[in-house]
């Protein structure tokens, strides 16, 4: 039986004009995760990655930490994140100030959670985005690929909170409100593990930051 390691990207540039770029902390988180796995002798038989810049930058940091030893990644747009700006605009068309204060930050995520619930329920269709069932189906297809082709190996998958929570929802059959709650809790560079057999996937760990569990990494935990 193999293991699928689902990794959320390192800290990106929340609140900036271009979110899709790792911060200095995000690069450090990714590098540290690769080093942690290298210290424990973990090697991967296959690598899957979304096509967003924050995904490829995170993967590059992990591979550097591993000492450069990783298979050629398979780029899969099904692992790309939903468009949070389009979702929020669907439920709040008026311009919003940048989330530069704790209250504005909370408002941003309240609106996002509301929009996610409506998108999943089929009551909104954000511009430029697939329907929820199509998004979910893309994630399901990736899980099927892993189960069919890599059941006996260890697979690294680098993505975002939305696809990872959708993957957990597929494995655990969670209702939309639970999938959203899981999504909001996945931390930057956190690892979720599924055991993989040809017939099924099973959740083993969720949202782990074991690679940051040392005093020198205090303060490295981030969520956006």
SSE succession: EHEHEHHHEHHEE
Number of helices: 7
**CATH homologous superfamily annotation of the largest domain:** Phosphoglycerate mutase-like
State the CATH topology of the largest domain.
Answer: Rossmann fold
Main pleated-sheet profile? 6 strands, mixed
Euclidean distance between termini CA atoms = 33 Å
Helix content: 40-55%
Beta-strand fraction estimate: 5-15%
Tell me, briefly, the overall form. globular
**Domain module count:** 2
**Which structural class is indicated by helix and strand composition?**
alpha/beta
What is the mean pLDDT? 95
Number of strands: 6
Q: Give the C-alpha Rg.
A: 17 Å
What can you see in these coordinates?
The chain has helices at residues 24-39, 53-65, 84-91, 102-121, 132-149, 161-172, 176-185; strands at 2-8, 46-49, 74-75, 154-159, 191-196, 201-208. The protein is α/β, with parallel strands linked by helices and 224 residues long. It is globular and about 50 Å long. A hairpin with a 4-residue loop joins strand 5 and strand 6. It comes from Melaminivora suipulveris. GO terms for molecular function: hydrolase activity. InterPro entries: His_Pase_superF_clade-1, His_PPase_superfam, Mito_Ser/Thr_phosphatase. Pfam families: His_Phos_1.
Break the fold down into its secondary structure elements and pairings.
Blueprint (H helix, E strand, L loop, with lengths): L1 E7 L15 H16 L6 E4 L3 H13 L8 E2 L8 H8 L10 H20 L10 H18 L4 E6 L1 H12 L3 H10 L5 E6 L4 E8 L16
Parallel strand pairs: 1-4, 2-3, 2-4
Antiparallel strand pairs: 1-5, 5-6
Helix pairs in contact: 1-2, 3-4, 4-7, 5-6, 6-7
């Amino acid at each position: 039986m193999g293991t699928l390691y689902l990794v959320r990207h390192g800290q990106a540039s929340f609140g900036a004009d271009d979110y899709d770029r790792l911060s200095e902390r995000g690069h450090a988180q990714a590098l540290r995760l690769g080093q942690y796995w290298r210290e424990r002798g973990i090697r991967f038989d296959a690598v899957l990655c979304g096509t967003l810049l924050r995904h490829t930058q995170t993967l590059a940091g992990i591979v550097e930490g591993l000492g450069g030893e990783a298979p050629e990644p398979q780029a899969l747009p099904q692992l790309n994140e939903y468009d949070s700006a389009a979702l929020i605009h669907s439920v709040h068309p008026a311009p919003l100030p940048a989330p530069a204060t704790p209250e504005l930050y909370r408002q941003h995520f309240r609106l996002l959670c509301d929009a996610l619930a409506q998108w999943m329920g089929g009551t909104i269709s954000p511009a430029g985005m697939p329907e929820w069932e199509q998004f979910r189906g893309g994630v399901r297809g990736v899980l099927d690929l892993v189960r069919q082709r890599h059941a006996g190996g260890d697979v690294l998958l680098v993505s975002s909170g939305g696809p990872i929570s959708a993957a957990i929802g597929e494995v655990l059959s969670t209702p939309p409100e639970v999938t959203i709650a899981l999504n909001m809790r996945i931390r930057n560079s956190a690892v979720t593990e599924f055991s993989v057999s040809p017939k099924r996937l099973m959740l083993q760990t969720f949202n782990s930051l074991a690679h940051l569990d040392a005093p020198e990494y205090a303060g490295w935990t981030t969520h956006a």
